[in-house]
Amino acid sequence: MDENFKYFLEKMGPAIEKRHVPASSVQRYRGRLPDQLLSYWEEQGWCGYANGLFWTVDPEEYEPALEAWIGETPLMEQDAYHIIARSAFGKLYFWGEKTGGPFQLFAPGAFCVPAMGEPTADMDFEMRIFFGTRKRKTDDFEDLFAPAMKELGRLKHDEMYGFVPALALGGISTLAHLQKVQAVEHLVLLAQLAPLEVIAHPSQI
User: Nearest to residue 188, comparing CAs of 15, 70, 85?
Assistant: First the structure.
């Protein structure tokens, strides 16, 4: 295990809801996603960290969400993307086969921040940095994760905390309006409620 991932585990804690990654899935993404990520899959499985605040995911399972959000946008003309991780509140991390990344999309707010700058030639290094620089605060939303877990219970691998009604429909981002929802289905639903806004300042996400 590399030093970046060890540091990631020190900050985020042990994995939960581990799912074994079949060899067929590793082979499917060999040459499309960095070998470093595939190694993490083989060592850790697809799972949650920080009690379910941050999740690594099967990109194939999240293809409906990817298609719903960026399938009809110019982003798809730039690269072939895959969702490799998500937060408990629906922040999605996309990785480009040619451009790397990740770029971030916050589904409840219907906006994304594409990856900035030129892609590195060393995708494995870029992936190690992605994990090594993860912070709990980055994936929390208005400090709602701890109270949501206490009130609603810990998430399963296919669940997220969603605002009901959705923010795009005038919902309010408070604990009282959070529910456990099926992650992929909810992400697809959110994509139908508001057009995606592309912004250029990472501080806004």
Answer: 70
Give the residue among 19, 163, 37, 13 at the shortest CA–CA distance from 88: 163
pLDDT of residue 116: 62
Q: Cα-flanking dihedrals φ and ψ of residue 198, to 5°?
A: -100, 120
Q: Is the pLDDT of residue 117 over 80?
A: no
Contacts 24+ apart (CB under 8 A), 120-127: 123/34, 123/36, 124/34, 124/35, 124/36, 125/36, 126/34, 126/100, 126/101, 127/34, 127/36, 127/37, 127/40
- Please check whether residue 121 is in contact with residue 107, taking contact to mean a CB–CB distance below 8 angstroms: no
Report pTM: 0.93
Domain boundaries, the chain: 3-204
Q: Are 44 and 136 in contact (CB under 8 A)?
A: no
